[in-house]
Structures are given as structure tokens and as C-alpha cells.
Write a structure and sequence with these properties.
about 300 residues; alpha+beta; Pnp Oxidase, Chain A; eight-stranded antiparallel sheet; 8 strands; binds flavin mononucleotide
């Protein structure tokens, strides 16, 4: 049966529209501060880049088998925000232990602040979670890292999906493929946050870029040939050099999505006079939201 797009809360449309306006003025406004809980429940915060809502895509033909829109041409997205990260990073460990987050996003061009409270979940590579601790540990940075492979990452797949039967591994790979070659290469590096001196691999020996076949093409004709053979699960889009190919595979293994399930959204508009402030609260055990104006 063809899925039908979910009714999205009003804040999703507001966020998408405001982000469009802000991005036209300044591309850096795509980042927000994401706070998690440290092991002693202390706040930890860092900037991250908004990578859209789950399955938010402009077109088909990007290799993902997931559907873009329903029969009435409504986008099959959910109201869950996506961030990309390294499964081995401290924030991934923090979220595995405590999913509670808050984010603050200042959209300076239009003078709006979004704050979102909710839970965030790590979607790692399936290869990553299947790693069996009885297997011998690899000493190199081949993706079987030293700090996270015994961690389990709870991921309430069904609640986070835009429709039943959504393929999460396709979504993860789609996001990895959208990264720049430089960013992809960062997922091959030693464990983030560990001492540079302890790293088995020297940073200067690692590739600076992990391009794909399309990005490596030397002519328009070659590019077309690669694109024609494009399929998410085929190696044809990948690299010609076996060495780079193995880096690519290891980097993809470390790559994870953070999926944010909001329960409260607070929007302050400092651009209007008088200022306005709107809050949305998700009703307990329900998909619908309550909206109210509050004093700024
Ligand atoms: C503007 C900006 C955007 C960033 N985006 C991300 C991101 O999307 N994902 C990420 O893991 N780190 C991102 N970082 C790096 C993080 O802020 C942080 O330094 C790093 O991920 C380590 O965080 P952790 O120790 O809390 O895991 C970004 C940093 C800046 C300054």
C-alpha cells in the first residue's frame, strides 16, 4: 500500500520557511547549539549542522529507495530533525546513556530564536552495532573503534519513521553521500576527542578527501556513465582506488545520524514589534500538538 504523508505540526513549516529566508542571507545560519547530558548529568553543548528533517529530499534518483512523496505529492517527511556525527564521539556516548536534549538556534537574518526540547537518538551503521566484542579488536582505525563498540544505541525506529517500512540504512547512506569529500574523510580519522599522541594513525598520512566516482570523473561523459550506474548499494559510484575504497567503507561505518524527536518547541520573534513568542507542546502519547502564544 502506498504510504500517506503525516500531518506535520505547524512549527515544522515555520522552521522550514524561516530557514530558507535565513540561508539566502547567510549560509552559516544552518547551525545550532545542541545540549546533551554528560555522565554526571552536567550539561554538554556544541554546535552542529541541521541536515534537514528525516527524508527531506529535493528529488528521487539520489540512490535511496525511500519514497520522496505520497500519491498526492505531499513530502513524506517526519517532524524529526537530523544531524550527522561520528558514532565514536562523546556526544554519541552521552545520547546512548541519556537521550534528553535541548537545542537553541539563532536565525540572525530574520531575528528568530528556536528552542527545541526532546529526545535524540543515534542511528549507527548496522555493521557497527553488530560488532561482537568477542571478535579480536583491530588496532588500526578501520572503523572497529576502541571505545564505543560495546555501547548499544536505542533507536525507536517506528516512532521516528516518516512512514511504515521506511529504510533507515538508506537514509544514513544518503546523508553520507551528500557530505563533501572533506567531511567524509573526517570519519576515517582516529576517535574524536582522544589524545593526538595516542592515535595509531598519523593525521598527515590520512586522506584529506573521500570523493565518490561522480566527483572523481574527469569529463562530463565519464560523469554521465557513473551516474547511469548509480545505485545506493552498488560499488559503481565509489572510488577506483582500492585503498581509498577501504577508507570510504571504514568512514561510512563510523558515520551516524542523530535523530531528534521534539516534545516542546519555543519560537521567539525579535524582528517584530512588539516581539512575539509561540510555544508548541506535544500532547502526551499523541501525535498532535498544542499551540499557544506566551509572553516573550
Ligand atoms: C559551526 C559548526 C558546526 C558543526 N557541526 C557539527 C556536526 O554537524 N556534527 C558534529 O558531530 N560536529 C559538528 N561540529 C563540531 C562539534 O561542535 C564538536 O566540536 C565535535 O563534534 C565534538 O563534540 P563532542 O565532543 O560533544 O562529541 C561543528 C562545529 C561547528 C563550529
Amino acid at each position: 500500500m502506498t504510504p500517506t504523508a503525516k500531518q506535520l505540526p505547524a512549527w515544522v513549516d515555520q522552521l522550514r520557511n524561516l530557514l530558507n529566508k535565513n540561508m539566502k542571507e547567510n549560509k552559516d545560519l544552518i547551525s545550532y547549539a545542541l545540549a546533551t547530558q554528560g555522565p554526571e548529568r552536567q550539561p554538554r553543548v556544541r554546535y552542529v549542522v541541521h541536515r534537514g528533517f528525516v527524508n527531506e529530499r529535493r528529488k528521487e534518483g539520489d540512490g535511496s529507495q525511500n519514497l520522496v512523496a505520497d500519491d498526492d505529492k505531499n513530502d513524506l517527511i517526519s517532524d524529526k530533525l537530523v544531524v550527522t556525527t561520528d558514532t565514536r564521539s562523546p556526544k554519541a556516548r552521552q545520547l546512548a546513556a541519556a537521550p534528553q536534549i535541548e537545542l537553541a538556534w539563532w536565525m540572525a537574518a530574520t531575528q528568530h530564536q528556536f528552542r527545541v526540547v526532546g529526545n535524540a537518538y543515534i542511528l549507527p551503521s548496522s555493521a557497527f552495532t553488530k560488532h561482537d566484542s568477542s571478535e579480536p579488536r583491530t588496532t588500526g582505525n578501520d572503523g572497529a573503534n576502541t571505545s564505543s563498540d560495546k555501547i548499544s544505541f536505542p533507536f525507536p525506529e517506528k516512532e521516528l519513521s516518516p512512514y511504515d517500512g521506511f529504510n533507515w540504512e538508506d537514509e544514513r547512506i544518503r546523508q553520507f553521500r551528500k557530505m563533501s569529500p572533506e567531511l567524509r574523510a573526517s570519519f576515517y580519522r582516529p576517535v574524536p576527542g582522544t589524545d593526538l599522541q595516542d592515535a595509531d594513525l598519523k593525521m598527515e598520512d590520512l586522506p584529506e578527501k573521500l570523493p565518490e566516482g561522480v566527483e572523481e570523473a574527469e569529463s562530463e561523459e565519464q560523469k554521465k556513465q557513473v551516474e547511469q550506474g548509480l545505485s545506493l548499494r552498488q560499488d559503481r559510484y565509489l572510488l577506483r582506488s582500492p585503498q581509498l575504497m577501504s577508507y570510504y567503507t571504514a568512514a561510512l561505518k563510523n558515520f551516524a545520524l542523530i535523530v531528534i524527536d521534539a516534545s516542546e518547541v519555543d519560537l521567539v520573534d525579535l524582528g517584530s514589534m512588539p516581539n512575539t513568542r509561540t510555544q508548541w507542546l506535544r500532547k502526551r502519547d499523541a501525535a498532535d500538538w498544542e499551540e499557544k502564544g506566551v509572553v516573550p
